[in-house]
Structure formats: structure tokens, C-alpha cells
Amino acid sequence: MIYKDEETFDKINFTETHFExxxxxxxxxxxxxxxxxxxxxxxxxxxxxxxxxxxxxxxxLTALREVNFKDCKLLGLRFDDCNEFGLSVSFDTCVLxxxxxxxxxMIKTIFKNCQLKETDFTECDLTSAVFDNCDLSSATFDHSNxxxxxxxxxxxxxxxxxxxxxxxxxFSYSGILGLxxxxxxxxxxxx
Length: 191
Prior knowledge:
There is one protein chain. The chain has strands at 2-5, 8-10, 22-25, 28-30, 43-45, 48-50, 63-70, 88-92, 110-112, 130-132. By secondary structure, the chain is mainly beta.
């Protein structure tokens, strides 16, 4: 197992070059292609991924501690497979469609300008999470804790108020429709 500290990895295609399993502290990955790479048992502490493709990577027991993803493609990731100890991530302008956070503790996580289409948040703890300008089309919130979470600038979500913990969650007036979907009612916008 290798150890890397404060290194920058730029334009590396890990689908062609072997990615070494190890511990990466304060490293930066820029324009790298990790798609379908096995990152199981790796540790990433205070790392940043910029414009990387991490679609369908394996995250079995992967430690992600204070990791930032910016302009990354993260299709179909199983964050529920990660090492849950110290799990702390943030996402800025990322595509996380079809990813899973099933039963994952994501307290205070920031999702900014992200696509989260068909993402699974079932039984996820999203207390005080921020969804800033995110597309949540067909995302699943079932028995999730979204207390104090901020959805005010996000859209296309459908959240069952009876199946989730929602105390003090924040929604915009226009987003209220996504809280009433299950009732199949018609709401007239005219005054």
C-alpha cells in the first residue's frame, strides 16, 4: 500500500494506467479518468477532484474524508459502500445521476449545482445538508432524515412528508408542489 502526500495527478487515464491502492493525503486529481476503476480500500484525506470522470468506480470500504469534487462525473457511484468513519464530501457542479447514498450519514453535506437524477437517498441522514440549485428529478427520499436540510433553490424533487423526517427543512414556495405529488391534486397557479 502506497502513501502520497500533497501530490497533483494531472490528465491521467486510470482506465489504461494502474491506480495504486493506498493513502492519499491533500492530493489533487485534475482531468483524470477513473471510470470503472476499483478504488476499494483506498483512503483519501483532504483531497480534491477537479473535472474527473469517476463513473461506476468501486468504493468498497473507501475512506473519503473532507474530499471535494468539482465539475466531476460521478455516475452510478455507491457511496453506501464507503468506509462510513469520517465520511465527509462536498460536490460542486457534479453529475451524480443514479448514485446511491442508501443508509449513509451525510450530515451538512453540500451539493451545489449538481444533477442528482434518480439518486437514492433512502434511509440517508441528510441533516443540515444543502442542495443548492440541484436537479433532483426522480431522486428517492424514503425514511430519510432531511431535518434542517435546505432545498430552497433546488427543483424537480418529490418528497413524501409522511415517510421522512423533515422538521425545520427549508423549501421555496415553488418547491412546495414537490411535497404534494403523492396526493395527485391539481393546484391552480392563477389568483
